[in-house]
Amino acid sequence: MTPAGDGAGARVAVANRSVHALHAALGVEGAAVDQPAPAYATVDFFVHCLGVAPPDLRLRLDGDTEAVAVPSPPTDAAPPALWITTASTGRAALEALLGAVGPAIELRVVAPADLPPLGSALRLAPLVLVGVADVAALQPAERAALADAAAFGATVVVAAGEGAGAADTLEALADVRLGVPAPPGPALGAALPRVTSRRILSAGPLATVRVEADGAPVLVERPLGLGRVRVLATPLTDLDAGPLARAALQYDTAALDGVLAWLAGAPPLGDARGAALGWAPWMWVGALLLLGLVARRWPRLAAGLGGAALLGAAVAPAVDAAARPDAARVLFVPTGGGDAVAAVSLDVSLRGGGVRGLAAPAGAAFEALAPGTACLVSTPADARWILPGAPGDRRRLVYFARAAPGAPVGEDEGALPGWPPGPLAGAALRPVAVPADLAAGAPAQGWLARPVAEAPAPPLRLGAPPPTP
What we know:
Shape: globular
Largest sheet: 8 strands, mixed
CATH superfamily of the largest domain: Class I glutamine amidotransferase (GATase) domain
Strand order of the largest sheet: 9-8-10-11-16-15-14-26
Distance between the termini: 56 Å
Oligomer: single chain
Strand content: 35-45%
């Protein structure tokens, strides 16, 4: 087991050294994520826990089972920025540059071969840096993970001046088409003395030119959900602590913070008393038949037993062994690509003590929890919540997922309050249906944030005189 991606979660690698395909599963009894393990192949599970004392998970490879202890991430450490690269040098200089243009932040280096195929394993990093040649070498699932990380709130910066890359390498990720390398030009050369060439960038309709020099784009940005993807025409190592570096490397999490603040306005959790009423229907039918037989001979006794049973169901902790989803609130934020980021607050009751499981959407990114402890076990195709606790405990799980909102179910209901300047400021809220997998079958309320159209700001022009106040 090793740290994965942003370091908040862990990768559990399962190596099948057999000549036969085997079946691997990770979780707890009755609630595990499974996947096939081909002969002589290694398959990965990803685990993200929040809270203290996470439960031991069980790893099963056909008939063999072993315990897996997953540590909680430290709560006092700030999330690092990520640099996805094969370079063996340059980390200290790039980390110093980040500190010169913004708040100091640790820079964690991740080799492209170790990049998880899940945006949930990258989401806590506020800034992700990568060269276009490394993007071109990624598998489709790993490229999708970069897009998900941006949609969930990160700023992803792709250096198009580093190495090769086909013209369409960044079209799906950033809506930018790559041209051939070209000389830097006098304005860019004056701003970056070390630069020797630039990549020609063509912005599509979803992207905006943020910085230009010598009449051509140098930095292009595509808003994506709660974050953004930027494409830089030069190598990262050519940047100096000037206006271009500030525009490329500064980041903020204002939209993400706004979503979390909005979700925090959900009603309080309360308690789970009365959840025993969720017994399976066949148990209630059997109880009523038995009570009917008693009532025919001893009606007073039957009335007393019935009253006691109803009182116990109302005040006693739940006795069912499952985790029950009680309610969900979902805010859909459009990505501009036809789907949306679903920010979900899911309330769950633990009907019985011990460790329980609950299905989660594939690709879900665990963001916050209150109270107690929970883990999310994931593969690219499946995910499960693992929830330890006592009978009657409740959990509020906050997570992100990529999903399409359902059909509208009402007219606009006001606007998002307290949002930072940008397209989500004052976005109208339209009630929409919530797909069942997002809410795990719980009664759910959903709203689609309808952004306000606004004209993009004019680009910064390197070498131009500063604007007159």
